[in-house]
Amino acid sequence: MEHQRSRDLLIVSICIVAAVVSLMGIGNLKVDSSTDAFIPAKASVVQTNNRIEEQFGSLDALVVSLYNEKGIINKESLAVIDSLTREIETLPGVKQASSITNLKHLAPSADGVDVVPLYEGSIDKLEEHIASWRSFYEGTFLSEDHSSASILIQTQLDYNQAELLGSLRAILAPLEGLRGSILGLPVVTEQIRISLLADLAFLVPIVAALIMLVLFLFLRSFKATLLCLVPLIFSSSLALGIMSIAGITFTMATMLVPVLLLIVGSAYTIHIFSHFFEEYEEAGVDAALANVVKKNTYPILAAAATTAFGFLSQLSSPLLPFRTFGLLSFIGVAICAASSLLLLPALIRLVYKKPVRKLVHKQAGRGMWAKAGNTIANRWGKVVLIVSLLILGIALPLSYSRLEEGTNILAFFKDSSALVEDTQSYNQRMQGSFSLSVMLKPSQAVLLPGTLTIVEEAITVLQGEKHVGGVQSILPFVKRMNELLGPGEEAMNTTSLEPEPVFDFFSDAVFEMASGQLFESSAEQAGGMGRYEIPLNPAEYGLETEEQLASLIAQYLLLYSSSLDAFINDPLEPDALLITILLKDSDTQTLRHLTALIPTLFPEDWSVEIGGGEAVSLALTDLVTKSQVISLFSSLLAVWLLVLFTFKSAKLATLSLIPCLFALASVFSVMAIFHIKLDIITSLLAALCIGVGVDYAIHLIAAFQRNDQDVASVMQTTGKAILANAASVALGFCGLLFSRFVPIVNMGLLFSIAMLSAALSALLILGAIKIHYSSLITRRPS
Fold this sequence. Notes:
Blueprint: H1 2-24, E1 30-31, H2 44-56, E2 61-67, H3 75-89, E3 94-98, E4 104-107, E5 114-117, H4 123-132, H5 134-137, E6 148-155, H6 161-172, E7 179-183, H7 185-219, H8 222-246, E8 249-250, H9 256-264, H10 266-283, H11 285-312, H12 320-341, H13 343-351, H14 358-365, H15 368-379, H16 381-401, H17 418-429, E9 434-441, H18 449-463, E10 468-472, H19 475-485, H20 489-492, H21 509-514, H22 520-526, H23 546-559, E11 577-583, H24 588-597, E12 607-611, H25 613-647, H26 650-655, H27 658-673, H28 685-706, H29 711-734, H30 742-772, H31 774-777
Parallel strand pairs: 1-8
Antiparallel strand pairs: 2-6, 2-7, 3-6, 4-5, 9-11, 9-12, 10-11
Helix pairs in contact: 1-8, 1-13, 7-8, 7-9, 7-29, 8-9, 8-10, 8-12, 8-13, 9-12, 9-29, 10-11, 10-14, 10-29, 11-12, 11-25, 11-28, 15-29, 15-30, 16-27, 16-30, 24-25, 25-28, 27-28, 27-30, 28-29, 28-30, 29-30
């Protein structure tokens, strides 16, 4: 007896030390909330983004939005914008910051064009400048009603995202008179990073409290409830420790592992205590516990194996965080099962000395709902079988075919969050905060009028598409310069007989001419009264070929002293140009339509590459859908093979999938009806439903196979434990409803529904099969 007690104390002590050491490593966890953590580095969209950034710089654009309902064009607001712009330009990681207070404006002059500051202290002059080029300024730097202004920030390729965003928040914190907000994909990913660990710390106590509530209602013993919780906390702590020691990245997927272990692991402890309370009143603590552990070791290990291998099926996913999630969950479930068979019995032997009172036993031993299930299976079993299987056959394929997909990470936040409200407000007033970047490499020279005309036609089509707020390109600069320097209507009606000078772009003379008069005769005739268009007719400019017009356009662009490297990759002879499509919404259908449309707008011999944050989201959506299909079938196969190995019967292995299929049908139906999207979190549900739902079938079939109880008795013991576990798991997952992330809230709701469906279908369908078609569920003696 003393030897057993010493061994129990040793087991408990080792587990406590291991849990404490594991929890101490939480501070070393590496958190990554970006989509880059999910999408493979070799994915085509990642390679495309890398090529775009090599040519045009970072695609991580940030926007500081400033709002004043009374109007932002006043001395006070402009002074604030100017001060913020100057301060932001000095921050580490900032390549360029642009606003209405530091932009260069192209204005007509006696020499043809002057590049002047947009704002020089005069409100009237500023409004005059804006009115002369309204299409360029409004929607990008200024709202149409002039109530909002933007500071556009282009970041360097290698910058510290957290440091830069922290600096921006510090700059905006003392802001008065204007409402300031920071927008852009980096802001969203940084907010997720900040919230992940806080969300986990918030959810774990809630989930634990809900599980304790169910355990207490089932066991009617506070002491037993606390003991059940110890192995679950131990397993979750060890999972966090493994992540910390192994340097595993903490993503939105892997953060679920400790919470899931708390919930899923409760099944094993419930079954131990359920049977322990049935026996130990008569047999005593040691004898009853030995018999309970012996009788439940095989079902618990079998159920744990199917759950673990259901998780392990995620190794087939193309997404690394999903594979990591599957492996960690596999290890965690194995620890849960082992601790329920080793740690929990040791705790019970140390804590329980005397039998519980008769009243407690009776309360813990009766199950009204299990009894009701037995009655339904007895009286209306055949009807239940036919109706249920018919519904399953219709609902499962129909709901799956109607699932919506989408991985817009802004949608991870609730509509009431400040980030979503600020983004929606900005999108209403401006061209949009979402973007697709399109890098074009024409088969001919970039600055040829024919090339630019094709780009212009494509932009016209794109601007007519739903949710497209605007398209940024080099064209507005070409058109504006032509408006100021190109020939006026009178000059176009006369033909110059004098030969035009030809400029050598690779000599220093071009820069000298850029500071003087270019095409002096044309400029004098135009007087800033040219047309806002791409130069197309060489004769109108006294030229002979399109190549000469391309040279003219290059000289136009040289006059604009501000950097244009966000649009063309070389100021003189570019071979690539970038257009940026600004979107007010980024739902998957819009992105899929645009990415299919864009290549059709350009000649087949052009190179067209689509990148940007929204392109990554779309590629991730496709990978998530692929991962869902792979993990669904691989987990079904893995579970079927494991149950086949467990029961040595293909018939029983097939029957064990019934609760899984009902769980899947309920999840897919709810997602289809309420338009819950398949994203990086909800895509994990299928494998979870299969891995966890099959446990109920295994426990029930194992009880039926023992032949030491009739169906009614099985329902009162194993059936009652299944219902208690389903309630515990469902209520535990309801704790996820308190998450600040919408996909995790959806997952909590959907999994709760799935577990209740799995438990009820196991009791009703398998119970009815046992009663009315017992040959299907009873093995023949070998």
